[in-house]
Specification:
two-stranded antiparallel ribbon; alpha/beta; Protocatechuate 4,5-dioxygenase, Chain B; nine-stranded mixed sheet
Length: 260
């Protein structure tokens, strides 16, 4: 079995699940380049845990973890099966880090709003990995590194979040307005480091001062990127597509790493 790439999706608003756009078409194209994996391990910005956890049920529920959106969004389901064996394999790879086997969570919108476009048939088992809120950026990266063997076992490691994610600063009326200078500077610094395979710069993102503080006011949407970069083998090429900042402060860049 050939080694699978790893991928980070800039997922944006839950409403993207209902849209057909250049972005969702790009997500589907990314899936086409990857092919059909045996299973998917997703690290979503929307599952923060005390300690590390992994979903371990046979049939994860579709979680509608958002507020005032159209009923059509609440009606959406992504009935992919789970994979308890993969959950156990994750626990094995992360030892001695304790990993809780979770039977309550499911697939949150950070996962399924992307997968409805990337793999719309929902016939690939999906497991989510919870991000330990007490872990440092370096520890999140190390967990991703420990998961590298899954890429040679037919498992797609996928992160979903946003490199720039400042919702209060967003210009909701002007989706295509030029990004704030601080957002553009931070995004460029991160993407340059990713393309040049300098993970230490991304791990130490807070060193960029106010640009980092404004672009990453809370780390939840940034952390999934660290898992993807941890799962990267040195020297693997990164492709950025789509690559733009929406509403001045919402980074929609997706990154495919290690594709042939």
């Amino acid at each position: 079995m050939s080694r699978l790439p790893v991928v980070f999706f800039g997922h944006g608003s839950p409403m993207v699940a209902l849209e057909k756009s250049d972005t969702t078409a790009a997500w589907n194209a990314i899936a086409g380049k990857i092919g059909k994996p045996k299973a998917i391990l997703c690290i979503s910005a929307h599952w923060l845990t005390r300690g590390t956890a992994v979903t371990a049920m046979d049939q994860p529920r579709t979680i509608h973890d958002f507020g005032a959106f159209p009923q059509a969004l609440f009606d959406m389901q992504y009935p992919a099966p789970g994979d308890p064996e993969l959950a156990m394999r994750v626990r094995e790879l992360l030892d001695p880090v304790p990993v809780a086997l979770d039977a309550k969570w499911g697939l949150d919108h950070g996962t399924w709003s992307v997968l409805v476009h990337a793999y719309p048939e929902a016939d690939i088992p999906v497991v989510q990995l919870g991000m330990n809120v007490s872990a440092t950026p370096a520890q999140h990266w190390e967990i991703g590194k420990a998961l590298r063997p899954l890429r040679d076992e037919g498992v797609l490691i996928m992160g979903t979040g946003n490199i720039v994610h400042n919702l209060p600063a967003m210009d909701w009326d002007n989706p295509d307005a030029p990004p704030y200078p601080w957002a553009e500077r931070f995004n460029t610094a991160m993407l340059d480091a990713i393309v040049e395979d300098r993970p230490e710069t991304v791990i130490d993102f807070a060193k960029l001062g106010d640009d980092a503080r404004l672009s990453v006011p809370t780390p939840d949407h940034f952390w999934p990127l660290l898992y993807v970069l941890g799962a990267r083998h040195p020297g693997e090429a990164a492709v950025l597509n789509p690559d733009f900042i929406h509403h001045k402060s919402l980074g929609m860049t997706s990154i495919l790493i290690g594709a042939a």
